[in-house]
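thread: overnight batch results

M.L. [08:02]
morning all. the overnight job finished for the chain we discussed friday. pasting input first so we're all looking at the same thing
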Amino acid sequence: MGGDMPTRKTSDDQPKRSFFCNACGKKVRMPRGWSTGSASRRHYWAKHPEIMRGKGAEGR
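M.L. [08:03]
and the structure it wrote out:
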């Protein structure tokens, strides 16, 4: 009954709304309308300011 209608959109139909931080492994949410870079910078400045200031990149 009604099996031909999907109940929700597939991941291909929706833009990605989150990603995982490479430094701490936490999920970083992307607000609607933000780019991945903007959300990443917001997270890194809030949670990893030493990396953003260039003091945590010795291992790279």
